[in-house]
């Protein structure tokens, strides 16, 4: 089977065709934002940045930058930097970012405050270059490519009882099918493995991966205990509890249903690109402002938010996170027929009919698979029709100094 | 209602269920469906006890432990944060253990 994608110089295939603006120092965020507001077809990474963070956390943020830039949904990259390479942490030097991104063989340019002659001149130069890149990008046509080129990432959230019955299991079947087609699927949310980690670890092909996965879970559980709180005061969140989920273990056992039934080929560090095809677990944080961008940085062309939504406000509530895949579309899918009914403008797909017995899980999984392929091929996720991106939250370990 | 695994001692309401109104619980194959009378209202998505549970009894859903009863839960009762607690990530227990030392 195939999807309609943009074939890149290195053979990877995009589901979108963006020009990405990266402010390599947060003081230039304003320039990235202005360029992005002005030029159609661009995306910008705007975060609170690297200042006074330890090396591991700076490397995590640098992986977000380079990972999004290398994502095949990006045609070209503009790095906004400062000329003097000695002025910042080495992880964010424009030369280093350029070298890393250059591995993908896509156009990368660096513009600096000094060379442009000030912040506002930098915005002008950025606009001119971005417009040129966006036009160049428009000359590339989508073509049918094998689904083995597709990598998708999933998170589940606003979980309720349907997440583990009709929602995540339907996604799991769609994921199984993509993997049978040779594609790649990432799932994450380390905290939501607590209570379900043995089942997941036993599916790792490599025993070393199983051990690493269990160590990741132990580390996060120990960190949770150090708060001195029952984790139930933090996660499941009150909205989960109101919707019928009573413990973290219960939430986790529902959450892992989205991992389908395929063997786990690899366990990835946060925002790390997989080295092979198939199912992977990636260390990550569940926040809707954090995980989609992290999955996109790991190379996913499409991200999904598997929504329970039992405790969402009624009557067309706001979506939980808007365009936080940054360069990757963020689809909203639900297994809760009530959620689908109250948020029709935001939900891309509902497997709620499984819950009411009108459809089998297999039928829903097949339909969801087709929807994913369609969105990879250019159908807009409903959130993409909104010209807004929520703030992104890289997953930092902390503390700060 | 749905019982997700034959070993589960709770089932999930897939519609709002009222107290004292008998409902059918769909059990996973090869188990046959059975009926139960809720003794409290069980809202959509919430859980019902399928047997009498004592304090400390392990609550099983998806065939796996999801926590333990904090008080006696009679068959047909709503199961939730008011009568069960998690077993994992219990920083509160560790903190009180540290204090006791």
Summarize the structure.
Chain A is α/β, with parallel strands linked by helices. Chain A has helices spanning 29-38, 55-70, 94-102, 113-116, 119-138, 168-180, 197-201, 207-226, 238-242, 248-255, 291-297, 337-342, 352-355, 361-376; strands spanning 2-7, 13-14, 18-23, 42-44, 74-81, 108-112, 143-146, 151-157, 184-187, 264-268, 278-282, 302-307, 330-334, 349-350.
Q: Which stretches of chain B are poorly predicted, pLDDT < 50 over at least 5 residues?
A: none
Domain unit count of chain B? 1
- Give the overall silhouette of chain B: elongated
- CATH topology title of chain B: Archaeosine Trna-guanine Transglycosylase, Chain: A, domain 4
Structural class assignment of chain A:
alpha/beta
Radius of gyration of chain A: 21 Å
Instruction: Going across the biggest sheet of chain A, name each strand in turn.
Output: 10-11-9-8-12-13-14
Order of SSEs of chain B: EEEEEEEEH
Average pLDDT confidence of chain B is 96
Shape of chain A: globular
Please give the number of β-strands of chain A.
14
> What is the strand content of chain A?
15-25%
Oligomer: heterodimer
CATH architecture of chain B: Roll
User: What is the number of helical segments of chain A per DSSP (H or I, 4+ residues)?
Assistant: 14
Helical content of chain B (DSSP H or I, runs of 4+): under 10%
Number of domains of chain A: 2
Radius of gyration of chain B: 15 Å
What is the count of β-strands of chain B? 8
